[in-house]
Specification:
This protein is of the alpha+beta class. 17% of the residues lie in helices and 36% in strands. A hairpin with a 2-residue loop joins strand 3 and strand 4. It is globular.
Length: 105
């Protein structure tokens, strides 16, 4: 029996049909919103928004929608609404910045 195929890509990203699902570690309260490397098995994102009243989650959705070239309605917070560890689904991305983020350490 042959071994299962090795997963392709980084552990923080998986493809789900036409969507991209990202495992993120977010750090609210930064000076600007940016992807800032890898944190364990998650992509680290610094957010220029405080972690109050959903502002950090709104900034995360705005940033990812802009990065992937989709409306914010296509960016869904799957898990982690009140946590720094989040899972986000981007439906039908136009751009794929996650491929550039693979080289981050």
């Amino acid at each position: 029996m042959s071994p299962p195929p090795a997963p392709s890509g980084p552990p923080w990203r998986r493809e789900d049909g036409g969507a991209v699902v990202l495992a993120l570690h977010v750090q609210p309260g930064a000076k600007r919103t940016t992807v800032d490397g890898i944190h364990g098995d998650a992509l680290k994102v610094r957010l220029a928004a405080p972690p109050v009243d959903g502002k950090a989650n709104a900034e995360l959705r705005r940033y990812l929608a802009d990065a992937f070239g989709v409306p914010q309605a296509r960016v869904t917070l799957v898990r982690g609404e009140t946590s720094r560890q989040k899972t986000v689904r981007v439906a039908d991305p136009v751009r794929r910045p996650d491929r550039e983020w693979e080289s981050l350490r």
